[in-house]
Amino acid sequence: MGAAEQRPGAPGRYAAWVDSTSTRPARSLVTARTAAVWQVLRREQERQGRELTVLDVGGGTGGFAVPLAEAGHRVTVVDASPDALAALDRRAADAGVADRVRAVQGDGDALGGLVAPGSVDLILCHAVLEVVDEPTEVVAAITAALRPGGALSVLVAGRAAAVLGRAVNGHLSAAAALVDDPEGRAGPRDTLRRRYDATSAAALLTAAGLTVEEIHGVRVLADLLPAAVVESDPQLLLELELSLATQPPFRDIAAQLHLFARRP
Ligand SMILES: C[S@@+](CC[C@H](N)C(=O)[O-])C[C@H]1O[C@@H](n2cnc3c(N)ncnc32)[C@H](O)[C@@H]1O
Predict the structure, then answer these.
(1) Number of C-beta neighbours around residue 22 at 10 A
(2) The pLDDT value given to residue 259
(3) Domain assignment of residue 149, given as a range
(4) Domain count, the chain
(5) Is the pTM above the cut of 0.85?
(6) Element (H, E) at 88
(7) What would the pLDDT profile of 197-219 be if each residue is shown by its tens digit?
(8) For a pocket test of ligand 1, which of 107, 130, 131, 139 has the largest count of ligand atoms closer than 8 A to its C-beta?
(9) Which stretches are transmembrane (predicted)?
(10) CATH number for the domain including 74?
(11) Whose CA is nearest to atom 6 of ligand 1?
């Protein structure tokens, strides 16, 4: 394990919040890069206090899906990539939770044929809305899949961090393009189709009928620091990330914005 990583169930300064009392500890790693998201997800697991039906839209290789299955939940991952789903299957098998993880190849805007409407307790949609054709269609499909009272965890790329990142690395024209582009794209070669700020991301979810309960910044500092600094005191960095995650303006310059919303 790298110096910047912490096992969720391991004793240490954060064991109390990463080792949920209502679920088995996950074996995957909680780091400064994911801590703010796991903190919100752990709270929802504790709030519900039972096995949840989870859907991870664009869940990829299962970085979140497998730990949630390890925590005792049933997780369906819908992803467009067969390669990612094959890796997910291997990861789930290695973790001993293959029976609680279902991999489905499909599109995030067509969930209707893959999961029963109004049936899902918790949906994750992490690092997906910035790459799909129509984010409003994906969010509409997610909303329809959630049961009333069900929750949505969304992670999107932050626009401000992308501007700052390009500028401090000397790519001023890319930074300017990103500022000017209505979608927050740094030109046609940008790998992302769009980026968000807290207001635009919240508006996307609200327009679909969801209630946004929390907005956090994820990776406020982690991407800005040299590796040597990250490794020098990973626990302090993790603590700083959690502290800054909720505080504008730090929240708003994070590499990713995490929104936690609920279907009324
Ligand atoms: C950047 S990865 C994020 C993976 C994972 N959610 C995470 O946070 O680590 C984006 C994922 O979305 C999937 N994806 C892209 N477009 C999609 C779509 N329209 N429907 C479903 N999955 C999609 C990709 O195959 C990929 O696995």
Answers:
(1) 13
(2) 98
(3) 5-158+196-262
(4) 1
(5) yes
(6) helix 82-94
(7) 999 999 999 999 999 999 999 99
(8) 131
(9) none
(10) 3.40.50.150
(11) 59
